[in-house]
Write a structure and sequence with these properties.
CATH architecture of the largest domain: 3-Layer(aba) Sandwich
Radius of gyration: 18 Å
Number of helices: 3
Strand order of the largest sheet: 1-16-15-13-10-9-8
Order of helices and strands: EEEEEEEHEEEEEHEEHEE
Distance between the termini: 25 Å
Strand content: 35-45%
Shape: globular
Number of domains: 2
CATH topology of the largest domain: Trna Endonuclease, Chain: A, domain 1
């Protein structure tokens, strides 16, 4: 995925979906933030951020925060919408070894008893259904990646749904898309959401496949490239 972006300096993030920044020309403006999480460590004042520009003239805030480059020289993709786009690209390119050779791919398919939507529903070479739930990981403590960064009842629901899918005889995959260049492994943030950590442990014992892949950031002259490359320990 190639980003052709402009840079700015972060003043602060607030009201979850807004941030104030200083543009390259010194002007201050407000941009949109497509991230419902706490964004701990991703939104430090004075960090360099990169934003995209919408061509939709009806938008109140035409700029969208995409990436952060921190004072620790870490790249972070803060726009959680990009996680699914990157993973779909990686699946189609055969970069997710557990999901290679799929025959079909459908997005946002309704399933389960709790009215959920699975990010991707695949069929493999044996016509087996594979349910893939994607979670974006950007919380770093030391070199350890943690999920979630805030209590997530929605994430808890998804784990219960995936467990039920396995019990029905299908494959269920929880895929952590690690969009932080400083993270080397992923585990549940038990101190933030103990219930999620408990359900994740149960999901593993029930046969839900839990995997993690890290995004690789490359800055070129006129763009920043982000792609899924490295498998990490979970």
């Amino acid at each position: 995925m190639k980003f052709f972006l402009n840079s700015a300096t972060l003043i602060k993030r607030y009201k979850r979906f807004l941030a104030d920044v200083i543009l390259a020309d010194g002007k201050t403006t407000t941009i949109h933030v497509a991230n419902t999480g706490a964004m701990t460590g991703c939104a430090t004042p004075n960090d360099k951020i990169y934003y995209s520009t919408s061509e939709n003239s009806k938008r109140k805030y035409p700029f969208s925060w995409e990436l952060t480059y921190t004072s620790y020289h870490h790249w972070i993709c803060v726009n959680t919408i990009r996680a699914n786009q990157l993973i779909e690209e990686a699946i189609n390119n055969g970069q997710i070894e557990e999901l290679r050779n799929h025959k079909t791919l459908k997005r946002e398919v309704k399933y389960g008893n709790e009215n959920s939507k699975i990010d991707f529903l695949l069929t493999d070479g044996n016509n087996q259904q594979v349910y893939v739930e994607v979670k974006s990981v950007t919380l770093l403590e030391g070199e350890q990646g943690l999920f979630p960064d805030a209590v997530t009842t929605r994430g808890q629901k998804h784990l219960r749904e995936l467990i039920e899918i396995v019990e029905q005889g299908h494959r269920a995959v929880l895929l952590f898309a690690v969009l932080h260049s400083g993270i080397n492994s992923v585990k549940a943030a038990k101190h933030i959401d103990a219930k999620y950590a408990e359900l994740l442990s149960l999901a593993k014992t029930k046969g839900v496949e839990v995997i993690a892949y890290q995004g690789h950031f490359t800055q070129e002259n006129d763009h920043i490239d982000l792609s899924i490359r490295h498998k990490l320990a979970v």
